[in-house]
Amino acid sequence: MNIDLSGRIAVVFGAGCVAESIEMGWxxxxxxxxxxxxxxxxxxxxxxxxxxxxxxxxxxxxxxxVALPLHADVASSGDIEAVVDRIVDEFGTVHIVHNxxxxxxxxxxxxxxxxxxxxxxxxxxxxxxxxxxxxxxxxRAQNHGVITNISSILSTRVSQYDVLSYYASKAAVDQFSRAxxxxxxxxxxxxxxxxxxxxxxxxxxxxxxxxxxxxxLKETVLERDAISPTGKQGTAWDIANVSVFLASDQSAxxxxxxxxxxxxxxxxxxxxxxxxx
Length: 277
Fold this sequence. Notes:
Layout: E1 9-13, H1 28-38, E2 42-47, H2 50-62, E3 67-71, H3 77-91, E4 96-99, H4 114-142, E5 145-150, H5 164-184, E6 189-196, H6 202-205, H7 208-214, H8 217-227, H9 236-247, E7 258-261, H10 265-273
Parallel strand pairs: 1-2, 1-4, 2-3, 4-5, 5-6, 6-7
């Protein structure tokens, strides 16, 4: 299948990576930005850390693509409006929105601070709302657009990680995606949610609380690999490739879907909870 996104403008929110080079691994948003560019799109790389956005943009330019790095706090209405204004000035419109930015602080209702709870919902959910607020009018005017929100299989299950606010916020992302999909289908706009499973990225390696659960980086990788039915975690490219498909005309009738990209983990766990009679 040859996917061609030539002539389309994609904006990836959370396009940076905590790693300083791809030799240390690819981040989900970083890989998605590069994948859109490889399919022919011009890509706006947005991150709260401008240097990280610039590094992703450099990867795209090194391959001959067009990329614009921009800074924004995805939870700031002013920042997102400024980003969209800059995109319109530079490219005229937006065809693809990819909402990847997220945080996952550890804590239950007792130990998690109110500020951490609020910030998680601002970054993980409000960001999707704000990108839609400022970009949907452009998409409606052109009767075309694709929005992909990165959720998690943890929107539907509880893991060994004590990330209450992350669970709740990702469930909100899935329902937000469904509602946006239904309301905007008459405008030729599609919205889907992607649920990564266990993905081996530099962010996991840098998450001290995740490492503490397993004891070390080596054990983190081994134990997470063992949980997957495939025996290995996925990579950022597994999420990126699905996202490019969702943005393409080949998925023109796929709307309001919640797509797990987890190597069969949800299916495995469902079978374990509900064994055959």
